[in-house]
Amino acid sequence: MRAIVFPEAGRFELTEVPDPAPGPREVVVEVAAVGICGTDLHVLDGDFAPTVFPIIPGHETSGIVREVGEGVTDLAPGDRVSVDPTLTCGECSFCAVGRANLCERWNGAGVGRTDGSTAELMLAPVRNVHRLPDGVDLELAALIEPLSCAIHGFDLLPRRMGEHYLIFGAGTMGLMMAQLAPRAGAASVTVVDLNPARLELARHLGVDHAVTSPDEAARPGGWDVVIDCTGVAPVIEDAIGRVRRGGTMQVFGVADHDARAGFSPFRVYNDEINIVGSMAVLHSYGRAVEMFAAGALAAASMVSHAFSLDDYGEALETFRAGTGRKVQIRPGLTRSRQLI
User: Fold this and answer.
1) Which of these, 47, 71, 273, 293, could form a disulfide with 42 (CB 3.0-4.6 Å)?
2) If phi over 0 gives left and psi between -120 and 50 gives alpha, with beta otherwise, what is residue 213?
């Protein structure tokens, strides 16, 4: 099969690799779509510590079951599916207490030690493969993986009805958090970004304020919940200062592993600021499938480009430039196209 491979940090190639064969309780999925996200860039740039090269990237995956291994009874060839990329040991102290996303041997398809889905075929354990409900668009369903991360982020927030949210970053994750916030009880949602096109989309999706600086929509005393979806240290430093007394700051975006951000420990103490991280997926993938099917996202508005495997380099350039919205690779395409 054809696949994109990162042989080492800083380099990718389109090459032929052996077709995967399913072992017991494994499934081979013919990839329909795989999204590109910031983590993929961190992997390629060598900034994501868990990565072992060489690796096939790609972890936001939808497709069709092609083949199943021995012992697989709940899925069959032809089933339309979404694939959870999270791989854990099930045995360490974190897995034992239900916090498998912090697994001591955590692995992620396409980002850790296991090949991902920027290829014609992907191999996955059956427990990670979720059948899609009827009516769900197959290519857009690649958004389910980031949605599951967003849902986990909300699971970690000490939510109350009627709170005011400030979200830094209007990329895919920021816009997902913005769409979920009203469902979590937000009284208002403010999104900050420097990209005019992304702010326009945020307004289209119904946020209360889409601005280039929080000062344009300042709230006396700050916001109850502030979420960083940029992973940029200076932005995080500013974001902490925007939290209302007794409020919550969530570090959601993926920063470089050696990045550092400063804050006032006295203010965290004196104002009882709650600072919480959010790492990947935890017991949220199945719910993401259900919420996606229920229309929790304006999915068709979020995917702007579909690239073939041959145009992977152009896809990366489009993503790095912040052009458009979600960028996908669709291995079955012979010609790349802009969707929106």
Assistant:
1) 47
2) beta
